[in-house]
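=== RUN LOG ===
request id: a7f3
mode: sequence -> structure
chains: 1
length: 264
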Amino acid sequence: MGFRYCSLASGSSGNSHYLETPENKLLIDAGLSGKKIQEGLAHIGVDPKTLTGILVTHEHSDHIKGVGILSRRFNLPIYANQGTWEAMEDCLGKIKPENKKYFETEGTFILNDMSINPFGIHHDAKEPVGFCFYHDSKKVSFVTDTGHVCDKIKAKVKDSDILLIESNHDVNMLRMGSYPWLLKKRVESDYGHISNETAGNLIVDVCQTTRPIVLLGHLSKENNFPELAIQTVQNILRENKLVEGRDLQLLLAPRDEPTQVFEL
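=== RESULT ===
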């Protein structure tokens, strides 16, 4: 078996993803209540007692809400970089010292049968990261909560077999919507969130040589809706001669329910 992957939830109200290899059962973020995450795991037949750890992208509450309780409940190690630990530790409650694990941004570390490369992204957090995971010649990549996509990010996620990317908002909906002006500026800034159009262009740039499964995630409830996100990206793919089913598989990661389990 290679990778098994499922998005348990992906949106501004909470994010958590499950990634499995023969020797790992990991959560990437736990931004829902412990109960909700356990329900999501049960939905895909995973006993939380068998988890091997939680990896954290950054300290915002929609990514860490359940981290502390799950670590205490199931004695799980938590993996984060120095900046994220400094920013989130007071929010997690008491964590066993042996469950506080550190990694270096832009470094690579080994966790059992998996190689993990955390890379810096552009968000208004202390030291936010995306991840690339490698196992058995396959690659799974995550990049959400970034205000823009630089060449370094493109190079990191290129040639992924599964790619979860942010498709947070429609620019017109954001600008015309009910958000306060300062919040609109934050979302649209270089340290906020990327739009449907930016997501589509990223896919074009990084999916030319593989036939990946691409999931659009972290959709805004107020400034986007699933059909619009998919349609916008599909239009960009067609304009660039990429064909769904031939060149890639395009799907959504819902805000509040698990996806199917993808296997590589």
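=== NOTES ===
The mean pLDDT is 97.
Residues 72 and 95 are 7 Å apart (CA to CA).
=== END ===
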